[in-house]
Amino acid sequence: MSRLEITAPDGAPEVEPGDDLVAIVLLMASLADGDVLVVTSKVVSKAEGRLRTGTREEALPGETARVVARRGETMIVRNHLGLTMAAAGIDNSNVPQGQIVLLPEDPDASARGLRDGLLDRTGVNVGVVVSDTAGRAWREGQTDIAIGAAGIVVAEDFAGRRDGYGNELAVTLPAVADELAGAAELATGKLGGRPFAVVRGRADLVLPRGEHGRGAAALVRPDGADLFGYGAREAVVRALRAEVADQRPFGAPASPTELSAAVRDVVGLVPSHTGAADGALLVTCPRGLMRALTALTFAHGWMVHTTDHPNEVRLRPSSG
Amino acid sequence: MSRLEITAPDGAPEVEPGDDLVAIVLLMASLADGDVLVVTSKVVSKAEGRLRTGTREEALPGETARVVARRGETMIVRNHLGLTMAAAGIDNSNVPQGQIVLLPEDPDASARGLRDGLLDRTGVNVGVVVSDTAGRAWREGQTDIAIGAAGIVVAEDFAGRRDGYGNELAVTLPAVADELAGAAELATGKLGGRPFAVVRGRADLVLPRGEHGRGAAALVRPDGADLFGYGAREAVVRALRAEVADQRPFGAPASPTELSAAVRDVVGLVPSHTGAADGALLVTCPRGLMRALTALTFAHGWMVHTTDHPNEVRLRPSSG
Q1: Are B97 and A170 inside 8 Å of each other by CB?
Q2: pLDDT higher than threshold 90 for residue B310
Q3: Where is the Coenzyme F420:L-glutamate ligase-like domain (chains A, B) (predicted)?
Q4: How far is Cα B178 from Cα B180, in angstroms, rounded to an integer?
Q5: Domains and CATH numbers, chain B
Q6: Contacts of residue A55 in chain B, CB cutoff 8 Å?
Q7: pTM for this model (two decimals)
């Protein structure tokens, strides 16, 4: 039997900038070796003085690395931590009216600070997760995810492991830090007053003293490696711009065969293979289709290069 | 103090088509009113005879409603349940070699069957979640989500609720059924042998006897309402096709002002407002830009209509 227990103490004091979170945690929770402490980013931010006067809209530009999708009032951005969130994760709940709270500047560092503090003062070896609430593609509602972590395995790597039938496991990377954050949210809730939860029963995920692990940053898919790094509308706008200064791709470049098929299918032109090592293709393209060809080529992680012949262009993978 | 307990019993028997899952659950788990039983879809599928001989690739076309993104060997599709998953959720782990398992045909119905069966035989009122493992946009790794549910609140609706400071809550819909599935995965694991978990401590989420609730289908964002319903590359290909037979939009139509700004910005043309009630715009478009304008218009949820003037087109919202 596998057994987990999640407890979230009531009655946490109001946290102010500069407060000693380690002391507050020790006051409220009883911790044992192998526990995972899940702390909402809200309370970490408050202790770290990340409250600001103003609105989410005013704070958004400073928190935004790039816009992912925009629709009416909704702005989904990738923030400086690499997190894709509505309004960059800036929140205005459970803070005084007229104020907002920014995410911790480095939530993995915040988690390390808590882990080290707890270890120094009590000798107890706990993993720490800093959680925040995020929407998802494809599904309604939000779940809590790990935006910071220290001293825990954030994803269990089963690559190459086999099940009882001898099959290699198809799902190889359960993101357990996110599941811990979501499980903790079931105990802490959204109405304030329970910013901490302790998960007991997965001591196997907690790293030895002195090891912090890869942190929650390891759960962020690198920009340019994501197939959903732009909203569908934004992807089209981006590809159709005559010059895309920002070379961040929509995932890895397509194979020459894939691009060739797309060019035939979408703009009705037939590329020829040059035999070059980088897979370069040649296309004769009427002027009227040049923008569409360029957009299509860009979307496949390739670039259009001019040649000496006015209507002939060479297509090459962007990395080439 | 809020307290949750999650237990996953070891040593479940191998489930065969036609097996009585209710009896197996009762044999393994001790249930109380207000518990949530989380069952992996795998074991539900096995009991429902959803095993097939063959490979995931062979079964994929039958399970696919439409392709969302494709990259090399990876195929992310929306399946007939509306779930966006790699390989449509077809799995080949924890099944005999050479076989695959399809998702339950109607996981909400499977969940209702379990809930009703447990109620009938023991009088116990439990919520039921059928879980499966899914990748996410933007984040590495996978988490378990709820693909079926009965007798539980799948998302807590806090719309209009206020925090202790009087702020309206910005995050209004915690997807608790997904968090329950993820929490259960921490206890059941991926190596087989623990297909059931019981979550105790959120009886407030369990509905009264006789009520099944909206089911996990309520967590599926409707097709055409999702900003990430297509991979970035696929969105470009789709918009650039001269004729898009499939009118499924990339979210709600843009406002006339938004589309007008995009047309100016991307193709350098200046639309004029017609004053029509549907916000229709007129654009004079050289032939060479027509395909780009059409793609851009489509991406904004609008359509291009010809007029009596050869180079003039009228743009109208698709719904209009």
Answers
A1: no
A2: no
A3: 12-201
A4: 5
A5: 5-50+103-219 (3.30.1330.100), 232-317 (no CATH)
A6: none
A7: 0.95
